[in-house]
Specification:
2 copies of one chain form a homodimer.
Chain A: E1 3-6, H1 11-22, E2 28-31, H2 42-47, E3 55-58, E4 61-64, H3 66-76, H4 87-101, H5 110-120, H6 124-147, H7 161-175, H8 184-194, H9 197-200, H10 204-207
Parallel strand pairs in A: 1-2
Antiparallel strand pairs in A: 1-3, 3-4
Helix pairs in contact in A: 1-3, 1-7, 4-7, 6-8, 7-8
Chain lengths: 209, 209
């Protein structure tokens, strides 16, 4: 039994849902409501010391951090591969993924926007401005990276880790009403991904409790 | 010839310096002065579309993102190993590393502190308060993770990727005058690391141009 501690709108949880679907792995989704602060409750902290989602229970182990989880799934369930097996291809895929998961999402997620409010009294427009600044900075770089990729996916002919990380961030950017046309290659990659059933089934609208 | 585009005080570059030293790899360090905005200059953007450091030139390739670079070094120069070869150990090591590289450092680095200043008029004490909040949040979780590790390193009997990520963050926290005694296990891990020549030689004070 694979169990995902999940929140429908969490980008990091969305990544793991896509990966599980691409691997064809059935799982039970257990909602952890971030808006109700369930992530900071004792039971979530016991399984995820950072008080975050996602957490994955699999093979008798409890795993945290979406990129580490997806790397584990790829090592233990290699088909279809989500990361290239050659070290150079792997390094490039990982770098593309980390450009989203380290350098966009953690600076612009719910807990950071909340802190802007409590520490600096940021109102909704100021928080949106902050959010859009970091997405813009990250997507500008990622568009350059994407243009150099073979396509139609960042991972080449099949979707991989970088695609899995891009799609939730793109969903998120649209939710913040960003004009994503500025990044045509990213929009094309996102469109290629979202037609696939594995991506479609992981979409927040399909995972809302 | 291995060439590292480096900045002596960058945590991410410091990680790669440690890894190169642990692997016994000689390299040329090319300084990219972040304070002089050299990272946003055209030549740096050409090698690193995100306009960040580090970038590593190795084996005819140009690699970005410290965690991806270290993973590449480990795949191509396996001795000594910086990540466990079993998928579960690997997932745990990667999760410990990402708890620093995704969930502390990117929220509290120079470009974010600068943005707090330009967008919210944050003064030095406000920026330090922001910095310390995210380090405290991350180190609280990491202390729990570290307590469960075998020791003396996060990686067990030998230093690994998570240790490589912890040490620069600990250096950074001390630079911001944080009382790190609140995390005794992390302080012990840091002390065990910093006695090793590979860590000592990568220290910013030793790499200042």
């Amino acid at each position: 039994m694979i169990r995902l501690y999940d929140y429908w709108r969490s980008s990091a949880a969305y990544r793991v849902r896509i990966a599980l679907n691409l691997k064809g792995l059935a799982y039970e989704s257990v909602p952890v409501n971030l808006l109700a602060a369930e992530h900071t409750a004792e039971d979530n902290l016991a399984r995820n010391p950072q008080g975050l989602v996602p957490t994955l229970e699999i093979d008798g182990a409890t795993l945290t951090q979406s990129v580490a989880i997806i790397d584990y799934l790829d090592a233990t369930r290699p088909d279809p591969a989500l990361l290239p097996s050659d070290p150079l291809g792997r390094a490039r895929a990982l770098a593309g993924a980390l450009a989203v998961t380290s350098d966009i999402h953690p600076i612009a997620n719910l807990r950071v926007l909340k802190r802007l409010e409590t520490q600096f009294g940021a109102d909704q427009p100021a928080k949106e401005d902050w959010y859009r600044h970091w997405v813009r900075t990250g997507f500008d770089a990622l568009e350059t990276i994407a243009k150099a990729a073979e396509g139609p996916f960042l991972g080449g002919p099949a979707p991989g880790l970088a695609d899995i990380c891009l799609v939730p961030q793109m969903y998120n950017a649209r939710r913040f009403e960003m004009q994503v046309d500025a990044w045509p290659t990213l929009v094309a990659v996102d469109a290629a991904c979202t037609t696939l059933p594995a991506f479609a089934a992981a979409h927040p609208d399909r995972c809302k409790p």
